[in-house]
Amino acid sequence: MTTMRHDYRVVYTPIEDGWIMATVPELPGAITQGRDMAEARTMIREAVELLLESYAENAVRL
User: Fold this and answer.
1) What residue segments make up the domains of the chain, in order of their start?
2) C-alpha dihedral, 36 to 37 to 40 to 44, nearest 10°
């Protein structure tokens, strides 16, 4: 199986109490948050990976 890499644009938005919300406009459902930018980056990578795995398992085409 060949793995393809795709770069997604992530939007980071400060929210209450200093947290950072991360979303990927291209992938509805890819949304998470972190206590700081580093955690938000880690969390959005994980969210995108899980979402793409779900798409693959359910034959969703992007």
Assistant:
1) 11-57
2) 180
Three-class SS state of 17: helix
Query: Count of CB atoms within 10 A of residue 1's CB?
Result: 2
pLDDT recorded at residue 18: 94
Q: Is pTM, for the whole model, over 0.90?
A: no
φ/ψ bin of 23: left (φ > 0), alpha (ψ from -120 to 50), beta (otherwise): beta
Running along the chain, 62 residues long, what does each successive block of 10 average in pLDDT? 77 96 95 98 96 84 60
CA–CA gap between residue 55 and residue 62 (Å, rounded)? 8
Report the alpha-carbon distance of residue 43 to residue 40 in Å, rounded.
5
- The three-state secondary structure class of 36 is coil
